[in-house]
Amino acid sequence: MSANFFGGGIANGDYNFYLMGMIAMPPLVPTHVWNALSLAIARGATDQVKELVEENHLDVNACLSDSYWMPLLMEVLLSSGFSTEPERLSLLRYLLENGANPNICCSKGYNCLHIAVQQHQYIHALDLFLDFDADVNMPDGDGSNVVYWAVMGFLLRKENQKDRTLSHRVFEKILFHGADLDQKNKYDMNARAWLDHAAPEVKEMVTRWEAGRPAVRPAYTVQPKFPTGLHYPALVQKIWSEPSSTNTSLSGEMLRAVETLRDEAQRNGNANYKNTHKKMAVFVRDTLIGSGYFPQADVQRIRWSTEKLMKGRRPYKQDDVYDLLVDEVCVYHLASPNHYL
């Protein structure tokens, strides 16, 4: 099937989840198709998925639903319905060859590359994505690029020799896509900081690669615009754009705390929740309420919201509480933009 059979995809350009402007909302699979298509993907029914895509002239970069706005490629990657990994890879290749873009993020700020690089079970999928114009410096929602997760993640795991050989080959492919080892995430960490913990052969690969004075390829994929419950999205972008340092604003630290708590609950189910996480919620609560900027009704909402984030055994996964606190941090920032730690 030729690529022009399908609807157009999303163009390439500047990144953004938090830090830059965004473009139009992504397309959705038509309602009369999505139920059958989602069921086929869930069952790993490759032929049925292809048939539905072709018969309905679907945009292969469309999303199945407006909950997490996951593109079809991501739905296939995460499906547990495939009896073998080669079957999954076959359908992924089909979508990629017909225009699916592995760089497009879902509404949570991560894409197929970010998922595949963090889970060894998807190492072959990551290898495949890298053959289709992979944007390896595209940040995820925390600002971490693919090489960051490659160094911190699968290269630190204990693997047998066969797995390590594959991981190292994929790592080299990431490097030669123009990876930026110095690109910092919103916590001021980058891949280079983790190289000290990597195996000697990994450090040697980086040394050889950098000896050739490689060109770093800036992130270029324009991300779709997703609906947001935030009242001050532009201000959030501005606060995030201020790097964390010894002169860190209280607003920036509160945003980092809220997003760290959101990430821990939604991605890990609070599996790594520690007393430091509870202290983050207390810090946000006490800073906002102690400022005196909020009427009593807002104080009660802040108190109620932060209490939900202090229960390690009961992860709060809905966005409403986190979004409310982000809005209140913005109100605080508007009242005192120059308050620093």
Q: Descriptors for this entry?
A:
341 residues, Serine Threonine Protein Phosphatase 5, Tetratricopeptide repeat, 2 domains, 15 helices
Secondary structure elements and their pairing?
Elements: H1 31-43, H2 46-55, H3 72-78, H4 85-97, H5 112-118, H6 123-129, H7 146-154, H8 161-176, H9 191-194, H10 200-211, H11 233-240, H12 250-268, H13 275-290, H14 296-308, H15 319-335
Helix pairs in contact: 1-2, 3-4, 4-6, 5-6, 5-7, 7-8, 8-10, 12-13, 12-15, 13-14, 14-15
Please give a structural write-up:
This protein is mostly helical and 341 residues long. It has 2 domains: 3-211, Ankyrin repeat-containing domain (Serine Threonine Protein Phosphatase 5, Tetratricopeptide repeat), CATH 1.25.40; 233-335, no CATH class. The chain is 50% helix and 0% strand. It has 15 helices and no strands. The chain has helices spanning 31-43, 46-55, 72-78, 85-97, 112-118, 123-129, 146-154, 161-176, 191-194, 200-211, 233-240, 250-268, 275-290, 296-308, 319-335. Helix 4 packs parallel to helix 6 (123-129). The longest helix is centred in the C-terminal third of the chain and has 19 residues, at 250-268. The radius of gyration is 21 Å and the shape is globular. The N and C termini lie far apart (58 Å). Residues 1-23 have low confidence and may be disordered.
